Amino acid sequence: MSTCHQPFDPGHLLYGGDWNPDQWPREVWREDVALMRKAHVNTVTVCPFSWASMEPREGHYEFGWLDDAIELLADAGIGFFLATPTASPPPWFTLAHPDALAVTPSGVQLRHGSRDTYAIAAPAYRKACRRISRLLAERYGKHPALRGWHVHNEYGTIDYGPHAERGFRHWLKDKYGDLDNLNDAWGTSFWSQRYGSWEEILPPVATQYLPNPGLVLDFRRYSSDEMRNAYLEQAEQIRAAGSTVPITTNFMLPDWNNLEQWSWAEDLDVISLDHYLDSTSHEAEAHVAYGSDLARSWSGGPWILMEQNATQIKLRGRALPKPPERTIRDSLGYIARGSQSCMFFQWRASTAGAEQWHSGMLPHAGVDSEGFRTVVQLGQILKRLDEVHLPPVDGPIVHADVAIVWHADGWWALQTPDLPSADIIYAKELRATHRALRRLGIATDFVAPGASLDSYRLLVVPCLYPMDEQTAAWISAFARTGGTVVVTYLSGLADSNMRVLPGGYPGRLRDLLGAYSEALCPLEPGVRHRLLSARGKPLDAVAWTEHVHLTHARSVYSYAEGPLAGLPAITWARAGAGSAWYVSAQLTRPSLQDLWCLILHDADVKPTVVGAAPLGIEAVVRRSRDADYLFLMHDGEIDVDVTAPGVDLMSGIDLSEGGLLRAGSCTVIRLQPNAAHAVSVAIHKPADDSTHLESDLNREYQ
Ligand code: GAL
């Protein structure tokens, strides 16, 4: 349904946040808009949760306040995304339609009192969503300051009630056609679960013991599709009202994931992401890079950072301060990797309601605060960087040699209960791979199974547990035509219905790998086993090991201790014109990085800027229409000299003769178009700082 096939070009880098005028008296609106101008804010997301203010009683609409708020913005030259408020149905709605409230797996029907409390398949809810989105589109859809539609907010509530039952059965009929196929796919003969009619099938509700894993995975797929249909219905209403601006809905990472983003991406005009840090260490920046690479990959081009936290990192029940330089550096980190925006939740910190202690661009303290001064400074920086937003005429916005397979099926599959180890978490595994590559300065994309791999030299397949035959063939074809494939434990063990493939793990890939495991040998917490190789540093395995046999592969690392001592742990095999690695053990962070050094060396894959990563400097080249931009984000602890054939957009200084990049700061250098391959940046660390550098790097690994 995507209607804009051009890369998303909003005309400027977008800067701003959620704006909720209905939570404030009108005099505050005027102050807001004046301060937005002061901060160079050019875009806000209006009212993602304001259904009760727009429709206080069923069929009784009040849009006058919204008209006025929007005119204030427009008069000040500030554009807006208009949200449809459907993530938060008003109290009257749920009272009138109690069946439209979500039901938990234990059968508890949730009551009104928070947000996101809806049964996505409830007809009354869907009808009300269509109605309100149509009305908004008719009223504001052609407004000149409207930059786009922000449909709903973070689709994600999973319902297990009667509407989901009905929808799930319908979805299953479409998928399997007849019950024999379904029974076969799920292996329902086990524990007498064979279904004789569709009505017997339930969502994975609370039950005495373990549910069927095939059913569990299919229900997650169904729930994503149901939400996607709900999104599409709203998008249809918006288009039917004649609005032509881009339509999106904001995805959320990293703790939970209830959507299959690749399929959704086909229906969004632009991908948008909400991104909240979950660490105060260097891991935060690794996470910025991970979220951004995912969003850019889902999009296939530029994307929108719709929300981040302005001055806090929320961690384990605490709202920890986010230093100004981190807010700036991370904001540039998103833009380096293709974001067309730097947006926050939210413009003004609330003083009432559930999120009154969530930070805002304008903190409770007001303008005389470090938080607001940072927001103004960031606004100035983004103005200086504005030219980077122009999408390249052809080719990717960030070039990567390495592709990592990422799919929600892998995430959901590893959440099914009673796998051989509960310690292997998909999101953590994917982040570990990405972190190791980023730490070595390597640009990466994520890809869906079956995607075109023409531009890549190396394909990583971490923990993709369910795998169909086509995906296995696609991976093999990449290797056989000259690529390097790296497969990790827990990939390809099962078919796409969670049925284990017998004959040696991983059943789908053992021919390609030239190796197979006869047994999976997870380790208990605290246990580590050493791996040794003639070719590289010793490595440490934790959490997961396997009893591997070789067919035509050779062992690169072997287990050196424990019950598997002497057996292969990491293998390499020639595969046609390419090669395939198998990594049978989960490695500690430093070990994973050491392994990647070896693999990248063999595959001759080079970092974006040689020498930057070891100093803690992240180097990313964002391609644009007229130039390439080298973003250097200094996450290390010592100041360094940078020499580059271009001008630093932040300071206007020509760096051909060199310039100082302070620890914690960033620079964005304009290079000649397509000159990335020729970039040579000399980074000199003052000799007497070498001890600091060592201690910085060591800390990261603790
Ligand atoms: C996001 C959500 C926002 C706000 C924010 C901070 O996930 O979209 O509305 O709640 O989290 O908690």
Structural description of this entry:
The chain is of the alpha/beta class and 702 residues long. Helices cover 31% and strands 20% of the residues. It is built from 18 helices and 29 strands. The protein has a nine-stranded mixed sheet with strand order 13-12-14-15-22-21-20-17-18, sandwiched between helices. The chain has a six-stranded parallel sheet with strand order 5-4-3-2-1-11. Strand 7, helix 10 and strand 8 form a beta-alpha-beta unit. The longest helix has 28 residues. The C terminus is likely disordered. Beta-D-galactopyranose binds next to loops.
Concise summary:
With 702 residues, the chain is an alpha/beta fold. Helix 5 packs parallel to helix 8.
